[in-house]
């Protein structure tokens, strides 16, 4: 029994009331120097892990960042989707303080400690009916104010296994045909926590709040970068509201395939003890790869901060390709380092290369 109605679910009463909508403090990325000079000058290396998503910062300790560097880090995360750092000495208390700097700490409906979620390993029949939560998701996107930034620090990791995969929803939107982009803009999807709620209770957890269902735009605007992204979440979305039932079912299946086949828009992060991933839930979906390793060897601490209520601003935002074309027309280099126009590769001796 996992995400099903059971006597345990029916007999359970959550203690807390629903969360009301609120306006979070201004995103720290708005305060950053767009060049991110303080952050980059403090690092020994700044490496793009893939063209579309993921940057690794080397030679920096999050525990010692200045406020200017913290703001620039938020902007880098907003631009690159996820930023990685290894061998961090930050303590749990310092991690709490860092999250406080970025906003109001969010509380996952099933987290036990009031200030963080303990992330562990998962195994079992990950392809079975009763294994809930192995798919991509943005953390608790069913809230009215879903998280903006998430900071996950891994304390212990197995020698292999338990990687986390991140995919750029900004790039997923950009890779849709213009027809599909236009069709999806303005639609809303229902994000609901009912399955997660039932699954938690059936595994002995005690959720704080009753399940919720919230309509969010299927295409959203990032408040800082003003880029359009998909706001798709296969774990929590149950329907697309403006479509008929079968239309909705098939479009959701298409979106699932669009996401799951997007290797080019994805980064797979192999954890080591003390490594940190800092990502923007508004533009990234992620999944921890379960199974195949000793789950007692995986433990991390995750902290989120509340984001704004997702919105779509048709006039005030653009796709990645539109951004790239506009900046090229203005003779300006983009700040997000994203390469949009691909060319076929050639070997250095002029032969046509094979990609494998
Ligand atoms: Fe997650």
TrEMBL record:
Pfam families: TauD. One of its GO terms (cellular component) is cytoplasm. Residues 322-356 are annotated as: Disordered. Residues 46-302 form the TauD/TfdA-like domain. Keywords: Dioxygenase, Iron, Metal-binding, Oxidoreductase. One of its GO terms (molecular function) is 2-oxoglutarate-dependent dioxygenase activity. Signal peptide: none annotated. Its cofactor is Fe(2+). The keyword Hydrolase does not apply. InterPro entries: AtsK-like (IPR051323), TauD-like_sf (IPR042098), TauD/TfdA-like (IPR003819). Residues 329-345 have a biased composition (Low complexity). Transmembrane segments: none annotated. Belongs to the TfdA dioxygenase family. This is Alpha-ketoglutarate-dependent sulfonate dioxygenase. The gene is JLP1_2.
């Amino acid at each position: 029994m996992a995400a099903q109605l059971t006597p345990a679910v029916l007999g359970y009463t959550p203690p807390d009331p629903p969360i009301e909508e609120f306006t979070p403090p201004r995103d720290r990325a708005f305060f950053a120097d767009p060049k991110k000079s303080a952050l980059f000058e403090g690092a020994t290396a700044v490496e793009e892990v893939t063209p579309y998503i993921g940057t690794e910062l080397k030679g920096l300790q999050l525990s010692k960042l200045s406020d200017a560097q913290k703001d620039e880090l938020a902007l880098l995360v907003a631009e690159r989707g996820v930023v990685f750092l290894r061998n961090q000495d930050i303590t749990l208390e310092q991690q709490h303080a860092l999250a406080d700097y970025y906003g109001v700490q969010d509380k996952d409906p099933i987290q036990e400690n009031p200030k963080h979620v303990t992330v562990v390993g998962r195994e079992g029949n990950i392809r079975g009916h009763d294994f809930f939560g192995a798919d991509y998701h943005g953390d608790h996107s069913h809230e009215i104010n879903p998280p903006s930034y998430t900071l996950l620090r891994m304390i212990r990791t197995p020698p292999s296994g338990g990687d986390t995969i991140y995919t750029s929803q900004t790039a997923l939107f950009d890779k849709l045909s213009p027809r599909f982009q236009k069709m999806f803009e303005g639609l809303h999807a229902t994000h609901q926590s009912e399955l997660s709620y039932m699954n938690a209770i059936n595994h002995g957890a005690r959720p704080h709040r009753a399940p919720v269902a919230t309509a969010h735009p299927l295409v959203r605007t990032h408040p800082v970068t003003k880029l359009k992204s998909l706001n798709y979440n296969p774990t929590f979305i149950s329907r697309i509201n403006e479509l008929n039932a079968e239309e909705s079912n098939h479009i959701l299946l298409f979106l699932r395939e669009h996401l799951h086949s997007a290797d080019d828009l994805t980064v797979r992060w192999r954890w080591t003890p003390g490594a940190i991933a800092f990502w923007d839930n508004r533009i990234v979906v992620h999944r921890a790869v379960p199974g195949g390793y000793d789950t007692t060897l995986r433990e991390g601490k995750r902290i989120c901060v509340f984001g704004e209520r997702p919105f779509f601003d048709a006039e005030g935002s653009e796709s990645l390709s539109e951004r790239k074309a506009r900046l090229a027309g203005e003779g300006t280099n983009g700040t997000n380092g994203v390469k949009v126009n691909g060319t076929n590769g050639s070997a250095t001796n002029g032969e046509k290369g094979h990609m494998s």
